[in-house]
Every structure is written in C-alpha cells, then in structure tokens.
Specification:
By secondary structure, the protein is an alpha/beta fold. The protein contains eleven helices and nine strands. The chain binds zinc ion (ZN). The site of zinc ion has 5 residues, from strand 2.
Length: 309
C-alpha cells in the first residue's frame, strides 16, 4: 500500500513535470528503458524543462492547438510511464510482509534468481557486474548500508546496470534488536539506497539468515518481503569447484541462489560465476531478479485462477 501511494505520488509528479515541459514546447527525451531508476527520470524531466527555450505562439488558435497537442502527448507519456517497469526492487503486494525462500513456479518456467550479499565491495562487485553484463543477466544485490556509504560509486554502478537492490542492514551484525535498533539498521540503509540510486527497495535479507532477532520482524512490519534462499553456495567457506556443485545440486525452478560479492575476499565467487551461469543455462534456466521471480509467481496464480473460472 505504502509503495502504491509512493508510486502514485511519483506518477502525479511526473505528470505535472511532463505537462509543464510540454507547455513550454519541449519534447521529453525520457529514456523508457526498463529498470530505469526513478530519480534520474524526474531529474531529467526537470533539467530539460529548465534548459529549453520557449517558442513564441502568434495567435490564439495556434495556442489552443498547441495545448491540445501537448495534452495528448503528455497523456501518452503518462500511459507509457505507468506501463514501464518503474521499480525493479518492488515486489507484488501479496509478498510484502512475508518471508520467501523460493517462488512457486510450474516446471515449464525454469527461472532462477542469483543474489549477491554484503556489497558494495571494491573489485569483486565490479567483476561480478562485468560477468552479469557479458551474460545479459539481471541479478539481485543485498547491500550493507555502511559499505554503500564507503563505496557509493560502486553502488550507483550496480543500480545503473538495472539490477534489483535489497536491504541487508547497516552494520551486518548477529545481535538481538529492539524495535528502535532494528529501525536504525533498516531505515538508514534504505534511505541511503534511495538517496544514491533513487530506488525504493521493498526486499530485505537478514544477515546470516537470522529470522528471530528482531530485524526480520521489523522488516515485515514495514512491508518488506524478507528474502531468504533455496540454494546456498557456501561461497564464503568452500572451494570454487564445490561452490559450483552446491549451486547446481540445489538449483530448481523458482529458486533463489545465495552468493556474496562483498564482505571479504570473494575471488572464488567471481571465479565460479561464469561456470554456474553456463551450467544453469545449459539446464534451461532463465535468470531473473527476485522481484521478477515473485511477479512470475503472481502471474501464474492469476492464470490458474482464470483457468478455473
Ligand atoms: Zn550477509
């Protein structure tokens, strides 16, 4: 609900900005590429409308025509904005406030989500980004707030590449938290994510997968989907070869794979990743983000409901 309100607010803002721009005689160069984070679009709209010059309109009919034309144009732009994938890190309503280990997909849909925790991190995050780009894959990154504060440029790079972003607390500690403590860990991280990337994330992963120390409970209360995993690579403690085996043995349709791009030396993960991708692809998997995986489940449920009617 909160996300919907935010989205409506954003749409209204975008609409107002678009209308103003068109009245000034401006054509919007909005990049409607999927996954485009929100803020840059708004920023673009406003910057363009300020920098363009006005065209003089000589008579009243011309003026009316121009307005009619531009209203139509802005309606089209609005429709496009509504139709685009606004927010790559938002999950469908039914999953907000729940805990997820995998998505329920039928066996025809061999989709799997690669997730990377504990970044942004120097070198390894960028290496993983390069591998994902080479393979044309979108993944999901769960960030630690204080690392994002230290490496904001790496974070921006990940977001700009269109990957989904999740919250992994500010300090990544295995402590017990009261409500205020949990709020500090989670709210601060989400605020920084939004400040740097424009992304309002609705996915949270508890450090260490701990569900009973106050963090997951707070996240659920705030309507995050708490995202666990169905396949643990154990990349933090195992050799490259067994890391690949771990993933392959546990891979399944609707699965969520846990790996790490930060928080320590992740050279093994970087080394294993191209192999993991190649093998999963050979088995017929497509790669999606966690929000996309959940959207697939939602769509499948809708299809089943329609089929039953
Ligand atoms: Zn972690």
């Amino acid at each position: 609900m909160k996300v919907l309100l935010r989205r409506q607010k954003t749409l209204i803002l975008a609409f107002i900005a678009a209308t103003v721009s068109f009245l000034l005689g401006v054509t919007l160069p909005i990049n409607l590429r999927a996954n485009q984070p929100l803020k840059p679009i708004q920023a673009q709209v406003l910057t363009v409308s300020q920098s363009q010059e006005q065209k003089p309109i000589s008579n009243i009919n011309q003026f009316k025509q121009a307005i009619a034309h531009r209203v139509e144009f802005s309606q089209q732009a609005l429709a496009q904005l509504q139709g685009m994938r606004f927010q790559s890190s938002t999950v469908p309503d039914q999953f907000q406030g729940t805990t997820i280990r995998e998505a329920k997909l039928d066996s025809q849909h061999k989709a799997i989500a690669l997730t990377f925790d504990d970044g942004p991190w120097p070198k390894t995050t960028t290496q993983i980004l390069d591998i994902l780009k080479e393979n044309n894959i979108k993944a999901t990154f769960f960030w630690v707030g204080r690392y994002l504060q230290t490496y904001p440029e790496i974070g921006k790079q990940v977001a700009a590449a269109g990957h989904a972003i999740g919250n992994h607390t500010w300090n990544h500690q295995y402590l017990k938290y009261n409500q205020d403590g949990a709020a500090r860990e989670i709210d601060r991280t989400s605020s920084l994510i939004e400040e740097l990337t424009g992304i309002q994330t609705s996915i949270f992963r508890p450090p260490g997968g701990i569900l009973n120390n106050g963090l997951a409970a707070y996240a659920q209360k705030k309507n995050y989907a708490v995202v666990m995993w169905s396949a643990d690579s154990f990349d933090w403690r195992t050799l490259t070869e067994s890391l690949i085996d771990n993933v392959m043995k546990q891979a399944k349709s609707g699965g969520i794979v846990l790996m790490h791009d930060g928080g320590g030396n992740r050279a093994r993960t970087v080394k294993a990743l191209p192999d993991i991708i190649a093998r999963l692809r050979k088995e017929g998997y497509i790669f999606v983000t966690v929000p996309e995986l959940l959207q697939m489940q939602e769509q499948e449920l809708k299809r089943q409901e329609t089929a039953q009617k």
